[in-house]
Write a structure and sequence with these properties.
260 residues, mainly alpha, 8 helices, 2 strands
């Protein structure tokens, strides 16, 4: 229950307020004299409308938009985690804008100017993820002795092809998890699958042999056209080609300039 307030109590409160009003007013204190309890924060441009998903109006209708290159891993490794976090959202916002402009160009049956901008943004985001994964891996190895990555193993899918399966924890075991069984299908022996693997292996073998013959002919053509070229650089460009064997070929006929 609330206690009734007496008249003396009300008078005491009024006297205390009167004393405060009679006292000398407080002197203003400069901000520099106060301890720094907070820091400034920055935000992006607040338009608060759908124009955030569209490019600048000066780029509308042009055939080319100038842009810089993508972020390299060496540059991203020099930045702090806070800067990488901010850069990720800048790239994500730029990607959303480019995708919107690309879809708008398709609907208007027009060419999307400088489509390489989207590739540069995606390349920068991939490099940023790689740098973050490197830092997380180094931190977990230092603290726990493990990489911290999601564990996985090489499995065979329903067609008998190898792929990397990332493990994950589930509340139900495999034999009771119907969604997991419908999503993941692993290899089981089947005659049709065995026949498919044989033909698929033949296709891969023929493709590799064609690439080797194409590179071999390309090396011979380079040697015929530039007989004094750097062999070390040629070997680095075509590591699977035997340079000496290419020189012994009947098609090797170098063209030397005759000095007059």
């Amino acid at each position: 229950m609330l206690r009734p307030v007496s008249l003396n109590g009300i008078l005491n409160v009024c006297k205390s307020f009167s004393v405060l009003l009679i006292q000398e007013p407080l002197k203003p204190v400069l901000l520099k004299q106060l301890p720094l309890l907070a820091r400034n924060f920055s935000t992006s441009d607040r338009r608060m409308d759908l124009m955030e998903f569209f490019d600048d109006k000066k780029n509308w209708g042009v055939t080319e938009v100038k842009s810089g290159r993508s972020w390299r891993k060496e540059e991203l490794r020099l930045k702090s985690n806070s800067d990488l976090h901010k850069l990720w959202y800048v790239l994500l916002k730029e990607k959303n804008m480019l995708l919107t402009m690309e879809e708008e160009a398709k609907q208007q049956v027009q060419l999307f100017p400088s489509p390489e901008r989207l590739d540069k943004v995606e390349d920068s985001m991939e490099n940023l993820e790689t740098v973050i994964r490197e830092r997380n891996k180094a931190y977990h190895e230092l603290e726990t002795g493990e990489t911290g990555e999601r564990p996985g193993k090489v499995m065979k899918n329903i067609f008998g092809l190898n792929y990397y399966y990332k493990m994950c924890e589930y509340p139900l075991p495999k034999n009771m998890n119907r969604k997991w069984s419908e999503k993941y299908k692993f290899f089981k022996y089947d005659r049709d699958v065995e026949e498919f693997l044989v033909k698929y292996g033949e296709k891969i073998y023929i493709k590799r042999k064609r690439e080797e013959r194409r590179n071999f002919r390309r090396v011979i053509a380079l040697l015929n056209q530039f007989p004094n070229m750097d062999m070390t650089a040629l070997k680095q460009q075509y590591p699977g080609v035997d340079i000496e064997k290419a020189k012994l070929s009947r098609k090797y006929r170098p063209h030397f300039d005759i000095e007059s």
